[in-house]
Amino acid sequence: MKKFATTSAALAAALLLPTFPAAPASAAAQDPDVQDVTQMKAEIQQLTDRLNALEAQLEKAGKDAGKADKKKAPELKWSGSTKIGYMYDQNKTSKSKGEIRLKAKTKVDDRYDVAFGLKFKATQSEGGDEAYPSEKNRVKLDEASVGRQFGPVYLKGGVQSATIGEGLWLGKSSINMVSAKYDVTPRDALYLGYGRDSQAYLAEETSKPRARTLAFLQYQHTFAEDALLGIYGGKQQPESYLGIYAETPVVGKLHFRGEFVHNTNTDHAFNETDSDGNSIKYGYKYYGSKSHADGYLLSLAYGKAEKKGDFVPSVNYFNVDQNLFMNSNYTSYDDYIGEEGFKGFGVVLDYMTSDHSKLSLERYWAHTKPDDANRKNGTGKSLEKAPYDVLYLKFTTKF
Fold first, then answer.
1. Phi/psi of residue 317, each to 5°?
2. DSSP state letters, 241-273
3. CA 255 vs CA 301, 314, 357: distances in Å
4. Cα–Cα distances in Å, from 218 out to 110, 231, 233, 245, 293?
5. Which residues contact 206 (CB under 8 A, 6 or more apart)?
6. What is the pTM of this model?
7. Helices (H), the chain
8. How would you write the pLDDT of the chain (399 residues) with one tens digit per residue?
9. Which residues of the chain form beta strands (DSSP E)?
10. Nearest to 335 by CA among 204, 206, 171, 164
11. 278: which of 41, 45, 184, 320 lies 20 to 30 Å off by Cα?
C-alpha cells in the first residue's frame, strides 16, 4: 500500500505539471496552427498514458484489498437475553427465577454460518407443598449449529431452536436436529425439521432422560405484514400432531392471534418404570382414555411492544386437554401448561422500559382439565380438577 501511495502521488504530480512542446523539427512546424494541433495531440497522448497507468494501479490495489478481506478473520456477533421473575400461585408457592442466554454467531464465508449458545437458569422455590425451600441451578446447551444458504433454501444442522405456529405445541431451544426453511415465494414459506431432543442439561441432571424423536413440517402464507395463516403436522414420540394458526389485525391497534392443536393418538399409555417399579420421567402418569386430546389458544392484544414507552395490554384464553402434551418441556407456555391440562384466561400487561427491556405482569385465572377416564398408572384414581391461579411479574432484556 505504501508503494501504491507513492506511485499515486507521483502520477498526481505529473498531471499537475505544465507540459512544454518539443522544438519544431521543420519549417512547417513553425506555423502557429500546426504547432497548436501538435501540442494538443501530445498533451492528449500524455494524459491518456497517465490515466491508463493510474487505472492499472487502482485495479491492482482493489485486488490486493480483496485478498486482504478474504484473509481477515470472520466477525463474531454476540446476542442474548436475560430474565428475572417472581411467581406466586394459589397454593402460596413462590418462585424466584433468573435466566440468561448467550449466543455467538459468525459467517465463515458468503454461505456458511456457525452459531453457539448457552442458557444459565436458577430457580428458588418455597411455600405450598414444598417441605423446605429448594433451589435448582442449570446450564444447558442452547445452540451449536452450522447453517448454509442454497438460494431460497436455508439448511441448518446441530443443536438449535424451533418455534411452530404460535408456540402452543412447540417453542423450544436445544433441539438436536436438521432443519430447512424454504421461501417458495415472497409470501409462502415451508419449514421442516427432524431430530431428537433429550431435554438434558449440561449440569443438574443425575439420570439419562429418554431422547424423543421430533419431526415437523409447516406451511405458512403471509397476506400482509400483520396477517398470516399456517398449518403444520408433526411427530413427537409417541404422539402425532396436526395444527393450524393465524394472526390478523382486527380494528385499529387491536390484533388477534390463535392456534389449534390436535393430538391424533388415542393411546397415551406410554409410561415406563425402573427396575424397582417406580415411575420414571418418560411417559404419562395418568392414562387410559381413548379420546383425542386437543388444545387451543386465543389472544387479543392492543398494540405492539417494540420501543421505549410502548404499553401493550392483552388477554389470552387457553383450553388444553389432559395428555395433549406429555410434559411442558416443548411448549412456549411452559409456565402454565403441562400434562394435566389447562383451561382459563389471563391478562398480560407489557411495558417497554427501554428499546431492549420489558416489564411484564401476567395474571391467570384457570384450572387443570383432567379426563376422568385417565387414571394413575392406568388403573388408579383419576386426577381431580384443581385451580391454577397464578401471578407472574418478570423483567426481560434483549441485546
1. -130, 130
2. EEEEEEEEEEETTEEEEEEEEEE---------B
3. 5, 9, 22
4. 27, 6, 7, 11, 20
5. none
6. 0.77
7. 2-16, 32-71
8. 444 444 444 444 444 444 444 445 444 445 666 677 777 777 788 878 877 887 787 877 776 665 655 556 678 899 999 999 999 998 889 999 999 999 999 988 888 999 999 999 999 999 877 777 888 888 999 999 999 999 999 999 999 999 999 999 999 988 999 999 999 999 999 999 999 876 666 655 555 566 778 999 999 999 998 999 999 999 988 889 999 999 999 999 999 999 999 999 888 766 566 566 665 556 788 888 888 899 999 999 999 999 999 999 999 999 999 999 988 888 999 999 989 999 999 999 999 999 999 999 999 999 999 999 999 888 889 999 999 999 999 999 999
9. 76-89, 94-107, 112-126, 134-150, 153-163, 171-185, 188-197, 212-224, 227-236, 239-251, 254-263, 286-287, 293-302, 311-320, 342-354, 357-367, 375-376, 387-398
10. 171
11. 320
Type of residue found at 318? F
- Residue 278 amino acid letter: N
Single-letter residue type at 138 = R
